[in-house]
Amino acid sequence: MTYTQAVEKACNGDSTGFEFLYDTTKNNKYYLALKYVKDEEAAKDVLQEAYIRAWKNLDKLKEPEKFDSWLAQIVVNTAKNELEKRNHTPLDLRMESDEEEDAEIMDTFVKLLLTSMMSECAKSFERLPILMHADILRNVLYSGVWTKYEYNRLKREGKQQKLLEKQKAEKQKPDRQKAEKHKSEKKSKEKLS
Question: Do 121 and 52 meet the contact criterion of CB atoms below 8 Å apart?
Fold first, then answer.
């Protein structure tokens, strides 16, 4: 099957068209996304979003034989958007130890944002002609996103804990140096006596 035939089938709702397009491009486009975002999980997320965008706009593709390069551009743009999001977060995610209230606000914000994004994604999945059991996929998607959210939250908390421990160690370092200096002065006085 060619890209032109597969695009035509997919636009007509034939799942074999979607399957062919996905199966022939998934590995190549995964590595393309990985090249940009440098993280396996982020690359998978980028790829998923890129395919959703591609399926939504498949009927707008004017030259179906160029599907591969068209999808590559979508993957690149999606990866760039992901990198932009990482560099410009809506709220500063780096928190001081005494900002627990801010952390709760941020946590609530992230949960609301994820819920909104999952809702949009689920709506998109439900419009795809290849899905007979969209409700099952939606539940899998929700559980996967919340699992990743909890993982990242715990990871962030672990980084904050390590930062606190490092700061505490840095504060104790001058005290240890003073104690060692005092000890060496005491020993030198004892030797002189």
Answer: yes
Instruction: Tokens 């997320």: give the residue.
Output: 45
Q: What is the pLDDT of residue 96?
A: 45
Q: Is the dihedral of CA 141, 147, 152, 153 positive or negative?
A: positive
- Flag whether pLDDT at 70 surpasses 90: yes
pLDDT average, residue stretch 141-167: 72
pLDDT of residue 168: 76
DSSP classification of residue 11: H
Provide DSSP, 71-110: HHHHHHHHHHHHHHHHHS-SS-----TT-HHHHHHHHHHH
Q: 13 by DSSP, 3-state: which? A: coil
CA distance 30 to 18: 17
Is residue 26 within 8 A of residue 18, CB to CB? The reply is no
Q: How far apart are CA 81 and CA 75, in angstroms?
A: 10
Threshold 0.85, pTM exceeds: no
> Which pair of structure tokens corresponds to residue 81?
């958007």
